[in-house]
Request: fold
Amino acid sequence: MSLALLRYSCLLFWLLVWSIASPVATARDLPGSPLVPRLLLHDFEGMSGSLFGSSMSGWTAEPGIFTGRIQYDIAPANRAGGSRALHLRYRFDPGADSDIGWQLTLPDLDASAYDHLEFWIRGDGDIGYADALKIEFKQPLAGAPAGLLRKGSTVISGIGEEWRQIRVPLNLLSGISDWQHLRQFGVVLEPRRVRMPSGGYWLDDIALIKTGQPGPSVRDPVIPPLKTAWENSVGGKAAAQHHLHGRLAGWPTQLTVDPAELPTDDRAFLQRLADDTWRGLVALTDRVHGIPLDTVRLNGSLTPERTWLGDYTNVTNIGLYLIDIIAARELGLIDPSEAVTRLGLALDTLERLETYQGFFYNYYDTTTLERTSHFISFVDSAWLSAGLIVARNAVPEQAWRCTRLLERENYRFFYDPVERLMMHGYYVNLPQRSEYSYGMLYSEARLGSLIAIGKGEAPIEHWYRLARTFPASFSWQSQSPKRRVNRTVDGYTFPGGYYAWKGVKYIPSWGGSVFEALMPLLVLDELRYAPAGLGENAKAHAKIQRRFALEQLGYPVWGLSPSSTPAGNGYSEYGVRILGARGYGAGAVTPHAAALALLADPIPAVANLRQLATRYPLYGDFGFYDAVDPKTGQVAHNYLALDQSMILLALTNYLRDGVIQNYFTADPIIQRVLPLLSAERFFER
Reply:
């Protein structure tokens, strides 16, 4: 399981997500299906079949925070086929910075039988209008606090003074997948998109229809023809596993290591862990193409017939593997010439992979190098960029190749100038940006924002647009923020605030997991460059991770972060709920969390790694397995390239005085943003 799959499951907060303009079709383009009757949500005439008839029942204003006024009523429509329609009018306050709109409350509606939304719209020529606005549906987010809704939205454009019928494929509203339990339909105006202080619209005959032509979906699989043909030639997927073993550079020789064999000296113990982890990363790499397999499941056995190899990878895995090679050289595990050779092979493979506008797809088959995803991920692309940045500063012989790949990427591709945030990614098959955006400062995506700003491909304003906390009115939060008042840093004004637990102040992440908080420290020494901001927050998160697990949960070990599920072959989100705005639940403890904590609070982190190795059968031939259930002692005998790389890079920085961090911050891209890090103090009075 890679970082990218986690992104699909982390459905970010509904007020800070957007979708860009997408094509819409007229009624004559997509004939309706007679097999599924049209579901009329509102016709404003009281016709039979309408959910709400002619009344305003269900319609409410959804104002922004002190940002403007909206009005609505039912009035004569002047349209053939309908005598009355909804008349919507708005006025933004001067300097408005958040959206306003109208919403129709839906009765837990099941729309799964339909594939298009249909409605009529025109601009109000008497008072003016913008030619684009956003429409959206919302539904409850499973397992989330009440009030936190999942959203699917898209932007319609080309609105004029004449009535126009719009049909939007529901698949374009990519934030929703099952189309059951719909609670709201909304019309949204964003000040930076509308760019008109006031105006109005007419809306009529809002309906769901079935055309039988749903169009492409974010769930459409990519079937790699070369891989499929190869698997068929060797007897199918199960039979192919034997051949995949032959492509590996090595295999573990013992399932578990006796804790008594591990060094008693802490530094020697960490060096042994680094050595074992590197051997595993090399062994579980495709030896032909020189890139790591994403996941290897031993299933409690070293017998190849009982194990499973996930011969796919994603760009975060590749980016971190580039840094792994540098780390191995710095630790003395390989010599400089071998580092150049290994890096060259990985770059050879990168240069062969299919790309889109300079960016790599999220998943590739490690056997055939075919892409297996339609998605271009912002955060995964950023980790590949980070790997290239480190490599070009650490290995001069390969610097020009790394630079060429870096210069192909332009992060304006992900930047939404309306919301001023980085989008989750882009679906090439739709084609359209994803519904979600990275709107919180304290997530692993902050590193990508810094890279984009350092390259001059996102404005500095974007950094201050990222949320430190949310308004107290967001009742789904794990706690209300303290001192959430506007602050001004370097001329940018934004809401501040913080959370607190047992006297420790901190800025929350989304889920309260370790990798959200500390993964950027693998390449960026935030304790050094942002001592009163991100650095202080890193120490707070490490401290609360430890105290919450030991004191609140009663665990003997700590480190909650997304990882393998010890019971079964799954992957799940784990975190300290109070550390996140939403907050994930407790569960498995993962060694990569303790390794990351070395960079923020090293003494208890080392002790925790020792506890994990001695208390549970968690240490194998290639270092730590991915996770353990501290209540049952059950171990997930999996090696995930992402998590193993995090362990190796954290160890290297700790054992070699931040050597990886130094290579990263020496780069001109990062030098440009270091002043941005030191400018902000999170907790000053």
